[in-house]
């Protein structure tokens, strides 16, 4: 029986997801800074128009679904994205979660079980509410949970986010994706924590795995059941596409085609890495890069149509909907 996946424009059958970019961002902002120190390159309506153009171009390249992993900590504004979603032919899946790789915002640090303001964990209330009722009163329900840890490992605050994500997953079945630090083999600790919390690891994407050039590390993550996020194509400031392609081909040769998802971690606009910086340092870091450059190179290296379909259609569907 086919399962239903929530999007900004309503739920769709899993078989309608099609070619899916599993890890992208539409707008990454900072609401507090935006009020007090507006970014000179930000013009809301102009960037909404740019987003409409970008996502329409993605459809022309064959993409049918984009997962927007912009969550609390990255300036999520679902009303703004909903305006874009209403005008484009691709489906957009929203995410819940909290991007707090080291330290939570003060409200979450002080509110929760055993804290200064004792009571239910607002992180869990946020995640479950976003999934079951909808985000910020919009009715747009989240289809993925995003968590993060970085070079500092699973700090106490990051661990609390992972625990809330695990509880939300166990209650709702919505999959978990991570921001991981590949250089320190951070996916291992993430898997350990989520497994200890009762999350089946085949419902987890270890994000940014493609930043690693250590084949044993990547095979180990996949052997435990998780999906490997080769999700930063074009992000040359943290690693080369040459290395990503090389590692991807090695994993495919080793039989891991069913454990890999491809994407860019790109944004139409990001305050953190603004357009002028991207144009100078990462000019290929766009949501069309896979279609324009990477997939043609993989095909030239022997990627067949069935494996490409597995990477771009079947695996993202399995992430979002679960195994058949």
UniProtKB/TrEMBL annotation:
InterPro entries: AryldialkylPase_Zn-BS, Metal_Hydrolase, Phosphotriesterase. The modification N6-carboxylysine is found at residue 146. Zn(2+) 1 binds at residues 23, 25, 146, 265. Binds 2 divalent metal cations per subunit. The keyword DNA damage does not apply. Its cofactor is a divalent metal cation. Keywords: Hydrolase, Metal-binding. Coiled coil: none annotated. Zn(2+) 2 binds at residues 146, 179, 208. One of its GO terms (molecular function) is hydrolase activity, acting on ester bonds. SUPFAM superfamilies: Metallo-dependent hydrolases (SSF51556). PROSITE patterns: PHOSPHOTRIESTERASE_1 (PS01322), PHOSPHOTRIESTERASE_2 (PS51347). Belongs to the metallo-dependent hydrolases superfamily. Phosphotriesterase family. PANTHER family: PHOSPHOTRIESTERASE-RELATED (PTHR10819), PHOSPHOTRIESTERASE-RELATED PROTEIN (PTHR10819:SF3). This is Phosphotriesterase. It comes from Microbacterium aerolatum.
């Amino acid at each position: 029986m086919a399962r239903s996946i929530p999007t900004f424009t309503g739920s769709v059958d899993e078989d309608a997801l099609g070619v899916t970019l599993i890890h992208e961002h539409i707008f990454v902002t900072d609401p507090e800074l935006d009020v007090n120190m507006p970014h000179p390159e930000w013009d809301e309506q102009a960037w909404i128009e740019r987003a409409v153009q970008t996502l329409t171009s993605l459809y022309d390249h064959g993409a049918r679904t984009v997962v927007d992993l912009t969550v609390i900590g990255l300036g999520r504004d679902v009303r703004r994205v909903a305006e874009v979603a209403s005008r484009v032919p691709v489906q957009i899946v929203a995410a819940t979660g909290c991007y707090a790789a080291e330290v939570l915002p003060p409200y979450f640090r002080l509110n929760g079980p055993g804290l200064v303001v004792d009571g239910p964990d607002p992180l869990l209330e946020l995640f479950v509410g976003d999934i079951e009722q909808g985000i910020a009163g919009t009715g747009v329900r989240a289809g993925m949970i995003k968590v993060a840890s970085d070079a500092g490992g699973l700090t106490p605050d990051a661990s609390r986010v992972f625990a809330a994500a695990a509880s939300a997953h166990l209650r709702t079945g919505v999959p978990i994706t991570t921001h991981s630090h590949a250089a320190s083999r951070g996916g291992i600790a993430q898997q350990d924590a989520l497994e200890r919390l009762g999350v089946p690891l085949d419902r987890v994407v270890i994000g940014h795995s493609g930043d690693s050039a250590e084949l044993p590390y990547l095979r180990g993550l996949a052997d435990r059941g998780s999906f490997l996020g080769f999700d930063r194509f074009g992000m040359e400031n943290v690693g080369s596409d040459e290395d990503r392609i090389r590692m991807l081909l090695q994993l495919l040769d080793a039989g891991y085609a069913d454990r890999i998802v491809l994407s860019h971690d790109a944004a139409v606009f990001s305050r953190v890495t603004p357009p002028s910086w991207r144009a100078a340092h990462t000019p290929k870091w766009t949501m069309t890069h896979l279609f324009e450059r990477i997939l043609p190179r993989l095909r030239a290296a022997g990627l067949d149509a069935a494996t490409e379909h597995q990477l771009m259609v079947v695996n993202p569907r399995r992430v979002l909907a679960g195994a058949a």
